[in-house]
Design a protein that fits this description.
By secondary structure, this protein is α/β, with parallel strands linked by helices. Helix 14 links the parallel strand 12 and strand 13. The chain is globular and about 75 Å long. 47% of the residues are buried. It is built from 26 helices and 25 strands. A seven-stranded parallel β-sheet has the order 3-4-2-5-6-1-7.
Length: 748
């Protein structure tokens, strides 16, 4: 089918939608999607750049088929990882469907019950939902599933790169398999993302359990068009050589109580519709409060918003709406990953990144927030670092965040590298969760029937029957399951307690949060309640505690001036080995990167000089003096973790103590019984024999990572950790390389 034939196939309301936007022709992604959806029966994986029209590309042909043959139930199930993404897409799809007569319903925890009631009464059109709300539906409305989804045609999964391989993504695969089992067939699946590292792996994940192949259209990649800058500052504000020259050359006027880095960031975004990313909620809160203080001292208007998962729905939605409002004065929104995904935020002028993203995927997603509507994307990255003292040890002399950012940029510039998804083989936490969920929705089941229903779900393909038997016995012994007199299994009292909480529907780890209220307004949530009279930061402002209601988990506050830090627990993601390897190459080469601003270029030159003078360019294991050593393995998170455990396992033999590490950059330790040579030889010997990851997990260890790991037998957790959290093959290969380089004279 060519573009004209496809256009003619579209119903009138879609053609009018296209005319109204002045589109002269369909984009390549829209043609490819239409060819797959209209002419075939396969699943479809659409991977194209941000703002390329993937949503319309998927929905134009889907809606065409729905108009030709209206379904008798919900026709399209749209699943997205974030409420904010659903809210945004709801508006876009509702506009598209305005003249079609096809309803669209969004469904998540912030949506009013009356809105949901309409769908339950008359299940039609498109349902947009989070995985958590879908889980609730499977448990609490199991009798309605056929009526809701009996004629379901398509499942659209947005931003699948955030889901593939994770418990949350695998939860979706379980949900789709369970729906398919109830309605007797598997609807077609459409996966959308701008950043898929290995399309074949992602397609295999998307197809799991569907019985369908997946089409993967390939599009010609255009030339990179970026406006990119990286600048570096020391935390101290008194360094004369520091640049004070952001892109538009503002004159810095911030008082000296703010260091040059914060002043520079403020100047970069002041007066521009901007989005400022940080890697944690703590940094986001602190930066927003800092910007507000600078604005107040300069006499500038407070145009700063904040957006992260601990804020109330009202505050998040306010930020999203104000960002889209191009008639209002420019706003600056400080955000975490919650604004990283495909939310349309209008004509954004600049993206600012505080420190480095952890991945190429994150970099591309954040960069893609700007530059829409034909303009090249624009990002400034700013790095702040403590000024090293004369006696600072070698590991702390390296600007790790700056090196990581350069590596990420160069990997994509040079190779178009994007991290491939990492698939979990032993998801016991999810297995526990789905066992309870399946049983709650089904009622009592025999043990063989329960095992068949659960283990047949796609994410559990590598779980053995024996391991599942161990889990079931543990769940019976701890009251999560109960055996009836008829020898069937039902949910036990402990399981009922879990199921009663809305938090059960989520498989990601959460915390016991306290709701913060100022008068009648809900501000958001924090994890640890401060005592009455203490202050904390939330929503970019500082609050003083007036009253605590521990039983109801409420904190009553009033606003005060100033800024403070707040802390939430969280995992900020993994680093891929290719990034670590490229960081080393950045140190070794003499390339002058065009996007480095003056301070950043100087800092890189210093780092390269230090690396050459200390031997870091020639060796990976460095003697720091005395009994102190440092290993730079240049590995990603899982392989780095493996090497770190190997070193610890040799503590007795080599007198290794005081093991310290940062990220996946270096392992620092003291060694009293050996030398660099003997340690490397021992590590290499183990690598040649084949590293046994199970041996690296001690028998007394209970590694807890996922939400329900507390309820999993320790032996199963240790096995899962060895399989899914370590990478023995890659670690062994690197150790042999290090041994060859470091033990061979004259190697680089």
């Amino acid at each position: 089918m060519n573009g004209e034939e496809i256009f003619a196939r579209f119903p009138e309301f879609i053609r009018e939608f296209i005319y109204a936007r002045g589109w002269e022709s369909l984009r390549d992604v829209q043609v490819a999607a239409a060819e797959s959806i209209l002419a075939g029966s396969n699943n479809l994986l659409l991977t194209s750049s941000t703002a390329s029209g993937k949503t319309e590309a998927a929905f134009f042909p889907i809606l065409s088929l729905l108009c030709e043959d209206p379904p008798a139930s919900v026709g399209v199930l749209y699943i997205a990882p974030l409420k904010s993404l659903i809210n945004d897409q709801f508006g876009r799809i509702e506009e598209l469907l305005d003249a079609s007569g096809i309803p669209v319903t969004h469904w998540h925890g912030d949506v009013a019950g009356s809105h949901k009631k309409k769908l339950l009464e008359t299940p039609r059109g498109i349902l947009q939902i989070t995985p958590e709300s879908l889980e609730s539906m499977l448990i609490n409305r199991s009798n309605d599933l056929v009526r809701l989804f009996g004629d379901l045609r398509f499942v659209v999964i947005d931003e699948i790169h955030t889901l593939t391989g994770s418990d949350r993504g695998n939860q979706i695969l379980c949900q789709l398999a369970r729906i398919g089992r109830v309605i007797g067939y598997h609807p077609r699946r459409i996966g959308l993302s701008a950043t898929v590292g290995d399309p074949a792996l992602a397609a295999a994940w998307l197809s799991a359990g569907s019985g369908r192949e997946t089409d993967i259209p390939v599009f010609e990649r255009g030339a990179l068009r970026w406006r990119l800058g990286l600048e570096h500052f020391y935390v101290q504000n008194a360094r004369e050589e520091q640049s004070e020259e952001p892109k538009d050359n503002p004159t810095p006027t911030a008082p000296t109580l703010f260091d040059a880095g914060y002043s520079f960031m403020y100047d970069c975004v002041q007066g521009k519709r901007s989005l400022v990313f940080s890697n944690s909620r703590e940094e986001t809160e602190y930066l927003c409060a800092t910007f507000r203080q600078i604005a107040k001292l300069r006499g500038d208007p407070d145009c700063f918003l904040i957006h992260h998962g601990n804020l109330s729905a009202a505050l998040r939605e306010e930020a999203e709406l104000r960002m889209k409002d191009e008639e209002s004065p420019p706003t600056v929104t400080c955000a975490t990953v919650t604004m990283e995904l495909g939310i349309d935020i209008g004509r954004l002028e600049r993206v600012l990144q505080n420190q480095s993203p952890n991945s190429v995927t994150g970099f591309l997603q954040r960069l893609g927030r700007s530059g829409r509507r034909g303009q090249p994307p624009e990002m400034m990255m700013v790095f702040r670092e403590e000024d090293p003292l004369p006696n600072t040890p070698l590991p702390q002399l390296m600007p790790w965040e700056l090196l990581k950012a350069i590596a990420i940029i160069e990997l994509y510039r040079g190779e178009r590298f994007i991290e491939p998804p990492v698939m979990r083989r032993q998801p016991f936490s999810l297995l526990f969760h789905q066992t309870l969920s399946v049983l709650a929705s089904s009622g009592e089941l025999s043990l063989p029937r329960l095992a068949e229903r659960v283990l047949s779900l796609p994410p559990f393909a590598h779980i053995t029957k024996e391991d599942y038997r161990v889990l079931i016995l543990s769940m019976l012994n701890n009251g999560f399951l109960e055996m009836t007199e008829e020898k069937t299994v039902i949910v036990g009292l402990a399981g009922e307690r879990l199921l009663k909480s809305f938090k059960f529907y989520a498989v990601f780890k959460d915390s016991e949060d306290y709701t913060v209220r100022a008068g009648s307004d809900e501000i958001g949530t924090i994890t640890t309640p401060p005592p009455v009279g203490d202050r904390f930061a939330l929503a970019g402002r500082v609050w003083e505690v007036e009253e605590l209601d521990i039983q109801r988990k409420l904190i009553y506050v009033h606003p005060v001036e100033g800024k403070m830090e707040v802390s939430w627990p969280g995992d900020y993601g993994e680093v891929h080995t290719r990034i670590a390897e490229r960081m080393r190459q950045v140190l070794l080469e003499d390339t002058v990167y065009p996007y480095l601003k003056p301070n950043a270029q100087k800092r890189l030159e210093v780092a390269r000089h230090v690396a050459r003078n200390t031997g870091l360019c020639r060796h990976s294991l460095i003697h720091l003096g005395g009994y102190s050593y440092c290993l730079f393995p240049w590995l990603g998170t899982r392989s780095f973790r493996t090497v770190r455990r190997m070193i610890r396992s040799m503590s007795a033999k080599f007198g290794i103590t005081g093991v310290e590490y940062e990220g996946c950059y270096y392992i620092k330790f003291k060694m009293s019984k050996g030398t660099e040579q003997t340690l490397l030889e021992a590590l290499a010997d183990e690598a040649r024999r084949g590293i046994d990851p199970e041996r690296l997990v001690s028998s007394g260890e209970t590694p807890l990572f996922e939400k329900y790991d507390d309820f999993i037998p320790a032996d199963l957790l240790r096995h899962a950790f060895a399989v899914d959290k370590l990478n023995a093959a890659e670690a062994g290969k690197r150790i042999l390389q290090i041994a060859e380089e470091d033990l061979t004279p004259g190697t680089v």
